[in-house]
Structures are given as structure tokens and as C-alpha cells.
Design goal:
There is one protein chain. The protein has seven helices and two strands, in the order αββαααααα. With 211 residues, it is mainly alpha-helical. It has one domain. A two-stranded antiparallel ribbon has the order 1-2. A hairpin with a 2-residue loop joins β1 and β2. The longest helix has 29 residues. It is globular, with a radius of gyration of 19 Å.
């Protein structure tokens, strides 16, 4: 049975979740961990879900809004980086004593910030086009296919662009390659596990589709 629900509220909630996940992942990316023999930035824990969230925005509010939210997230990430940079420049209270630690952890490394924003915008726009192509040219019914198809293009693009800009020349090629592979693998796993989410929101007609 098809159920009518409030499209605006759902779209707003998903858009807020998308922008929030983008910001959280960029902050978490300040740590490089070693998991299962692979080097991996901390943001990979949450960042992959943004691709599916973007698909949900596309489904509920359309392609133009999805593009707008992608650019908005990029701008917000830049604002957050600027905020942390300004805060690191403020003189510390003598009783605090954590200025150097704060600067090291949250002071923006501009190369990584720009790598993240460029990779995010490019990959998410590719995701948008791939999603729309699937709906227009392949199938309007199989929603799971939209997620797999669009993410198959956007996930590798994001990982390669981000790691190349952020780490090439600063880290050994072996480590950079490891981070790229780990990113693609984890994002692929998250893509598969997040597929059911595409059925949880309405399309632009305000209905949850049966297929």
C-alpha cells in the first residue's frame, strides 16, 4: 500500500542529515587510523552514508535541490575550517594550557580541507547525474539499482580525488594507495547496507514507492 507523507519535512530532515554528516566526517578525517592492515582516515566511518543521503534528497526533492545541497555542504565545510582557523589564532587563557593540542587536532590543514571539498562536490555531482541517468534511461522501478549505479561512479571518484590531492607527495605512495583502497571498500560496504534507506522516503509525488 502506498502511504502519503509530508514531503517537505522528510526532504528537510534528509538534507540536514547530509550536511551534518559531511561536516562530521571532515572533522573526523583529522585522524589516520590503521584497521585490518589498511590506513584509513577517521571520516570514512561516517562519510560513505552521505552518498545514499544525497540519493534520498534527489528522490524526495529532485535533481536541482540535490545539487544545491551538495554545494551548500561544500560551503559549510569551508566555513567550519575557517572557524577553526580563527579560533586557533585567538590567544589562549593561561589557565587552559591546551593551545598546541587544539591547533594540531582542529587547526585546519588547508590541503586536506580543499581536497575534501573538491572531492565531495565533484563526486556528489557525478552521483547526481548517474542517479538521474538511471531513473531516465534504465529503470524508474528498481530503486536499489539507483543507489548501486550512482555510487559505483561516485565512490571511486571521491576516494581517488581526495587521497590524490590530500596525500600524494606528503605520504609514501604505498600508504596513499592503501587509503584509497580502504576508502573504496568501506564505502562500497556502506552503500550495500544502506540500500534499504532508499525505500524509506517518498518520491516527489509524495508517495513511498512499492518497488
Amino acid at each position: 500500500m502506498k502511504t502519503k507523507i509530508d514531503l517537505t519535512n522528510v526532504g528537510l530532515l534528509v538534507a540536514i542529515s547530509y550536511v551534518s554528516a559531511q561536516i562530521f566526517s571532515n572533522i573526523a578525517s583529522s585522524k589516520i587510523a590503521l584497521i585490518g592492515g589498511f590506513s584509513i582516515d577517521g571520516g570514512t566511518i561516517i562519510y560513505p552514508i552521505t552518498f545514499t543521503l544525497r540519493d534520498l534528497i534527489h528522490k524526495t526533492l529532485g535533481k536541482k535541490v540535490a545539487r544545491f545541497v551538495v554545494f551548500t555542504a561544500g560551503i559549510m565545510n569551508m566555513i567550519i575550517a575557517l572557524l577553526f582557523w580563527i579560533v586557533t589564532l585567538l590567544p589562549q587563557d593561561p589557565g587552559w594550557g591546551l593551545q598546541s593540542q587544539f591547533s594540531v587536532i582542529l587547526g585546519p590543514v588547508w590541503r586536506i580541507v580543499m581536497a575534501s571539498i573538491i572531492a565531495q562536490v565533484v563526486s556528489e555531482l557525478i552521483d547526481t547525474e548517474a542517479y538521474q541517468f538511471f531513473v531516465d534511461k534504465i529503470s524508474k522501478k528498481h530503486q536499489w539499482g539507483r543507489v548501486l549505479f550512482s555510487n559505483a561512479f561516485s565512490v571511486p571518484t571521491d576516494s581517488i580525488i581526495f587521497c590524490s590531492i590530500a596525500f600524494l607527495g606528503a605520504m609514501p605512495l604505498k600508504v596513499v594507495t592503501s587509503i584509497i583502497i580502504a576508502n573504496i571498500l568501506i564505502k562500497g560496504i556502506v552503500t550495500i547496507t544502506s540500500i534499504p534507506l532508499i525505500y524509506s522516503v517518498p518520491d516527489q509525488k509524495g508517495q513511498i514507492l512499492e518497488q
